[in-house]
Input
Amino acid sequence: MLNTIFAKKIGMAAKYNAAGKRMGATVVSVPTMKISGVRTMDKHGYEAIQIEAANHKNEVRTNEADLLSLPVGQEIVWNDIIKEGDKVWVSGISKGHGFTGVVRHYGFKGGPRTHGQSDRERSRGSSGATTTPGRVFKGKRMAGRYGNEKTTVKNLKVLQISLDERQIVLSGPIPGKKTGMIIITKHD
Output
């Protein structure tokens, strides 16, 4: 059964639970989704359904039974897939922060502000050994691009669904900028 929908992030909001405790929530809107293609094992080497939503196309892996029950051009009824109280995983492209140093990127402490170290305050410090191994190992945490990569937040709860406005309220923050496309996958 199809367990994935696409949505656009609207923004953050505050919601109150049954105990009256304030918690962060994210509001997303669900565009019209339709099946735009089918990938079969014989032709493509895997089984998937291509879904088109708001000029974005993405594939969702599925089994052969779903391929037969969902013909190309059919609109997906999103409120049959996601219900209030469901646990979901949300994937999206995180906000890009550009080229950043190690203090912002990894949370390094930096050097001392005193004792003659005026130009080493946000430096990473030493980057490797001297004679052995005589090189810097791959994966060393250094300055570089930060963000703008696919991120998944797991075990969020669907707090509220508005069918008229085509909106879903999810518990907690989700990756991406406002108006960014996200993928919501239902998990039991």
